[in-house]
Design goal:
The protein is mostly helical. Helix content is about 55%, strand content about 0%. The chain has two helices and no strands.
Length: about 80
């Protein structure tokens, strides 16, 4: 009976400590040594330029039109429309 209880306590302790292991491993990783994966395989110096914001503005305009279109819906329409 006590042997079974010891196994359950050990399983509980290990099970409760397991979620703490993964953050410790992630915090121990040195981020300064990681290379930029976009630049791997290039022999010369490569410069990654910043992207344009045109797609962001287009998305903003589309979402604004959707919001404005909902303002002009007839409030007295039925669910059969």
């Amino acid at each position: 009976m006590m042997g079974h209880m010891k196994h359950r306590v050990l399983a509980f302790v290990l099970g409760s400590l397991l979620p703490l292991v993964f953050p410790m491993v992630a915090m121990a990783a040195d981020e300064d040594e990681l290379p930029d994966a976009r630049l791997l395989g290039y022999k010369g110096g490569v410069k990654v330029e910043g992207g344009a914001t045109a797609v962001t503005w287009l998305l903003l305009v589309v979402l604004a039109l959707v919001c404005l279109a909902s303002l002009f819906k007839n409030a007295k329409r039925t669910h059969l429309d």
